């Protein structure tokens, strides 16, 4: 975006739908500086008359698989915290007392699981080089499609949906090119979906369905992502780069059928 100084004035003509006001504000208020300082790469999609059709941005990201501790229920987390705090404060006897009492109340298997997870968490923290370190089972390099929005002022006359066309024929090749230079296993995004549509069986969120059917994104499953306050209330979706390659090959035949 910042490769052309004229774009600074051009973005003032961009408007998003009411539910996408945050994306519009980002483009007009933050995108220029973030693109200029290298924090986010912002791209304007323009027609031959230099009118903005849509915009998107890409940045480096990270997905990870949490350790088993993150998979237990809230009650177990609270019990683990009791043992962890005792170990952290140097009160090993208290930790063992918790363990013995939990065996009576919850049974040996559950008590042992709680005790082991608390010790695992404690030693992960103790052995880390910084208290800012988050111990995870495994981390995965990823690319975040951090913004993707069309200009509602632009009259799109093609039969192919504007977002679908640009994603598969412009954004996808760019992502695949990037992954040839920098390793990345996934691409992900945060869907700002507050719109619900009805079908015969249940309520389906419109944007999530669009990303699933047309762009082939899916739920994170066992993976976790760091979600900034900016994306609060949005739904994280991801796609493996290998799947992106295969979907790119067959998407249009599927669309026609």
Topology of helices and strands:
Layout lengths: L6 H4 L10 H9 L1 H6 L4 E6 L5 E14 L8 H15 L3 H15 L1 H20 L10 E13 L11 H20 L4 E6 L4 E3 L4 E3 H8 L4 E2 L4 E2 L9 E6 H16 L1
The proportion of strand residues reads: 15-25%
Q: How many distinct helices?
A: 9
From the helix content, strand content and strand pairing, which structural class follows? alpha+beta
- The average pLDDT score comes to 85
Outline the biggest β-sheet.
7 strands, mixed
Sequence stretches where pLDDT stays below 50 over 5 or more residues: none
Rg on CA atoms, Å: 23 Å
Could you state the order of secondary-structure elements as H and E?
Answer: HHHEEHHHEHEEEHEEEH
Quantity of strands, as a count: 9
Shape: elongated
Helical percentage = 40-55%
| First-residue to last-residue Cα separation | 36 Å
How would you concisely characterize the structure shown here?
By secondary structure, the chain is α+β, with helices and mostly antiparallel strands. The protein has helices spanning 7-10, 21-29, 31-36, 74-88, 92-106, 108-127, 162-181, 206-213, 241-256, and strands spanning 41-46, 52-65, 138-150, 186-191, 196-198, 203-205, 218-219, 224-225, 235-240. Strands 1, 2, 3, 4, 7, 8 and 9 form a seven-stranded mixed sheet that branches. Strands 5-6 form a two-stranded antiparallel ribbon.
